[in-house]
Write a structure and sequence with these properties.
The chain is an alpha/beta fold and 334 residues long. It has a single domain, classed as 3-Layer(aba) Sandwich (D-Maltodextrin-Binding Protein, domain 2). 51% of the residues lie in helices and 20% in strands. The chain is built from 14 helices and nine strands. Strands 1, 2, 3, 4, 5, 6, 7, 8 and 9 form a nine-stranded mixed β-sheet that branches. Helix 2 (48-63) links the parallel strand 1 and strand 2 (68-73). Helix 2 (48-63) packs antiparallel against helix 11 (259-293). The longest helix has 35 residues, at 259-293. The chain starts with a helix and ends with a helix.
């Protein structure tokens, strides 16, 4: 009888311990802060948006082990860029990786990144966006209830065509180039002397193939992924537009975090952006070699300043929208 009672007592104690451990684990799990992060492109190992989000989650776990549960929502699952910006303002979305071009819909100064030939190379863009200009942009964004954590990148856009290599602004003369459907881009390419054509992306490959347009402006990864080496002869590394990706968090979400977790979020974003830029650069170097191997003739553009001088009327037109002081700081940072 005593043995039976002892076994029962031990079994009850064991069950109690297991229950207590389970309760502790449940409490720990519930103590985690869930962060929902969205972006519009695919969840691919080579996609710049996806790389940014994944690295952010990894660095956050390093900075604050076990304190966050980051959930990913790629490929428009939570809406387009504009809808995700609105959701962050309302606090219904925690974080997002949003192209700077679309952030300009709520903070016009972000159009600075759309000015053609503003940045001579990636390092120049990093100096500007990691410095006073980037801080000023995020200060304006804070007024819209969104916290800016930094700028990752999706690389530069370049010109491809079937007429000639582009080395000087004169080489752009009369080229029929499909450009991004943006008034700023249309004005810039007209000012250089090209004949820009706004066109739905779904129609562009056939238009190049049939000669309806001479070429287009496009990032390296998109050139290769969409088989443009099969229908286009020349790739000129014009670096005319830098795709900055803003890493953002809802102010409501950020303010709910304690000071230590806020610091962890900022540290994680900085480390993720550093890694993301390195990864994107390595990917682009590999893609460029693949483009060459596919038969395209590739040339560097030695004097981007000549192109920038040509588009200065566009800078003047958008100066008041962007802010003269910000623009001058960017121009004088190289």
């Amino acid at each position: 009888m005593l043995k039976k009672t002892l076994k029962t007592t031990l079994r009850a104690a064991t069950v109690a311990l297991i229950g207590a451990a389970s309760l502790t684990m449940a409490v720990q799990a519930s103590a985690k802060t869930t962060l929902r992060i969205g972006w519009t492109t695919a969840d691919s190992e080579v996609d710049p948006y996806a790389i940014t989000a994944r690295y952010f989650a990894e660095e956050l776990e390093k900075a604050a082990p076990g304190r966050f549960d980051v959930k990913f929502f790629p490929n428009h699952q939570l809406g387009n860029d504009t809808e995700m910006l609105q959701a962050m303002q309302f606090g219904t979305l925690d974080a997002g990786v949003i192209t700077g071009t679309l952030v300009s819909t709520i903070v016009p100064a972000f159009q600075i990144n759309d000015l053609p030939f503003l940045y001579s190379d990636n390092a120049h863009a990093h100096r500007v966006l990691d410095g006073e200009v980037g801080q000023a942009l995020f200060a304006q964004l804070a007024e819209k209830k969104i916290v800016g954590l930094g700028f990752a990148e999706a690389g530069f856009r370049h010109a491809i065509n079937n007429v000639r290599p582009i080395n000087t602004p004169d080489d752009m003369a009369r080229l029929r180039l499909r450009v991004q459907p943006s008034e700023l881009f249309l004005e810039a390419f007209r000012t250089i002397g090209a004949n820009p054509v706004p066109m739905a992306w779904s129609d562009v490959f056939t238009a190049v193939q049939q000669g309806t347009v001479d070429g287009l402006e496009i990032p390296l990864a998109v050139i290769y992924a969409n088989k443009y080496p099969e229908v286009t002869k020349y790739l000129s590394l014009t670096n005319h537009s830098y795709n900055a990706l803003a890493v953002l968090m809802s102010e409501r979400t950020f303010k709910r975090l304690n000071a230590d977790d806020q610091a962890a979020v900022r540290k994680a974003a900085a480390e993720a952006i550093k890694r993301q830029r390195e990864t994107v650069a390595a990917n682009e170097a590999q893609i460029l070699e693949q483009i060459k191997a596919a038969g395209m003739q590739v040339n560097q553009v030695d004097n981007l300043e000549a192109f920038r001088n040509k588009v200065m009327p566009v800078y003047a037109k958008y100066r008041s929208t962007i802010g003269g002081e910000l623009l001058d700081k960017a121009l004088n940072s190289n």
